[in-house]
Amino acid sequence: MADEQQTEAGTPKKRLGEIFVEKGILSALTVERLVVLAKKKGKRFGTVLEELGLVTPNEFAEALAQQHNLKFLNDFHLYRYPDELLRMVPFKTAMEHYLFPLKMQDGKLAVAISDPQTLDLAKSLAEKQGLVIMPYIAARSEIMLAIRAHYLKSASAAPRDKKCVLVVEDDQAVREFIGSSLKRKGYHVVSACDGMEAFREIVSVRPDLVITDKEMPKLNGYAVLESVRSFPETAKIPVILITSTATVDEEAAALRRGFFDFIPKPLREATLAVKVERALSMSEEY
After folding, report:
1. Contacts with 243 (C-beta within 8 Å, 6 or more apart), sequence order
2. Model pLDDT for residues 177-196, shown as the tens digit of each residue
3. Which of 28, 53, 69 corresponds to the end of one domain?
4. Which segments constitute the Response regulatory domain (predicted)?
5. What is the pLDDT of residues 20-30, one digit of tens each?
């Protein structure tokens, strides 16, 4: 994160680590170690913090709001929003960048964002419609709840006589291999080519198991996991991660985040069958 000590809205005033130490959420030593880890991995400090699950989504969002001199907002998914307002931010943009339109009044468009780096995009959307942006910071999970409730307007999932597996994979050959393998085992298979499409399927289909690739061009495997965990009715669905690059440390971190298991690439049909059966049988016990 940037080190600037400025006060303009959207401009960082202090480091995230300092804020968490001041709030008593993290120790100074933990922050130092996380900074070293972030540099080693070539990732942002906040990204590593989220991956390790050391702070809650709201704690992270509140710290970002304080860092960038913006207001924090929560529970806005409970309110009603007219379709005219929702059209101000296209669904694809809302999903891909975690943006949600809150209110339009007196030439101003209030939006919730999860990452201040999307502020320029939000400003551009508002300016194209002759409006001035009013940004608020919110947790990604809260924005996803709002998108689900107001863009997708999801209904209850239809009953089915087969276990349903959602396969999220951008590689068509791999996606078809997994799908055909599972169908031969008697499962109902639903496919998605990226995390954004997976979000829709999770809400509408409510699968019994999700298998997702780690790296995808839009929303990645971690975002798919977050989609599943965001809603009470899908929170207990097991999620298996497909990966070809994960180190032992990365696998341990992913398990701590909530993935049920891993399937390494190249995929083997026997391994796939065993891990799917295990995930589904264990989920029935809870």
Report:
1. 213, 214, 221, 251, 262, 263, 264, 265
2. 999 999 999 999 999 998 88
3. 69
4. 164-280
5. 999 999 999 99
Instruction: Measure Cα distances from 169 to 115, 164, 206, 266 in Å.
Output: 25, 16, 17, 14
Q: Is 102 helix (H, G, I), strand (E, B) or coil?
A: strand
Asked if residue 264 lies in contact with residue 283, where contact means CB atoms within 8 angstroms, the answer is no
Torsion angle of alpha carbons 141, 207, 214, 39, nearest 10°?
20
| In-domain check, residue 55 | yes
Q: Work out the end-to-end distance of the chain between its first and last CA atoms, rounded to an integer number of angstroms.
A: 40
Q: What are the residues facing 241 on neighbouring strands?
A: 212, 262
CB atoms < 10 A from the CB of 117, how many?
12
Task: Say whether pLDDT at 16 is over 70.
Answer: yes
The neighbouring-strand residues paired with 192 are 168
Domain, as residue range, for 175 = 164-279
In angstroms, the CA 78 to CA 151 distance is 13
Burial pattern 17-38, b for ≥16 Cβ within 10 A else e, equals bbbbbeeebbeeebbeebbebb
Specify the DSSP element, H or E, that contains 245.
Answer: none
What is the secondary structure of 181-230 as a DSSP string?
Answer: HHHHTT-EEEEESSHHHHHHHHHHH--SEEEEES--SSS-HHHHHHHHHT
The DSSP code for 118 is: G
3-state secondary structure of 82: coil
CB 123 within 8 A of CB 97: no
90 with 56, same domain?
A: no
- From 29-38, 204-213, 240-249, 263-272, the region with the lowest mean pLDDT: 240-249
Cβ(239)–Cβ(267) under 8 Å?
A: no
